[in-house]
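User: Is it possible to get a 3D structure for a protein together with its bound compound? The compound here is dTDP-4-keto-6-deoxyglucose. I've pasted both below.
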Amino acid sequence: MNKKLKTKNSYLVQLPLIAERNRGNLSFCESKKQIPFNIKRVYWIYKVPVNQKRGGHAHKKTEQVLFCLQGSIRIELDDGIHKDSIILNNPNIGIFLGRMLWHEMEDFQKNTILLILASDFYKERDYIRDYNTFKKLTQK
Ligand code: T46
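Assistant: Yes, that's possible. Here is the predicted structure of the complex:
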């Protein structure tokens, strides 16, 4: 069951979990199933120093799902009106980030690994990296 959040265009993605006694766990996701778009890009973030923040931007069109495969982070979401603060610390539960959501990742635990599935190729022009610009666009 996916859980909606206060911020628009966002929800928690619960993946299938195959937990086998003595063999460990397996989770999976597929395009247009657990992931609501065709995956065009995969990237991962790791070896982030504790106390370092990342993110601090919104995407005009790109949609993404983030999974914390190891460790823990807090992700701060802001749609211009509502805010959410979510801890990601379960490889089985991701977060869908749709368009126009300001997001910051912080409180990285040591050795955290974040995996991100994206709906589009990397395009710097898809980023809004200035918060005031983001605010203006979301108040329209
Ligand atoms: C996001 C959060 C969750 C590339 O060349 N290709 C890529 O696919 C990506 C993602 C980044 N880059 C370059 C752009 C910058 O020169 O890598 C550098 C670091 O990117 P950035 O400072 O945007 O990294 P984060 O961790 O702040 O944000 C990243 C993604 O960029 C962003 O889309 O939503 O993770």
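The chain has one helix and 13 strands. Residues 41, 43, 45, 54-55, 64, 66, 116, 122 surround dTDP-4-keto-6-deoxyglucose (CB under 6 Å).
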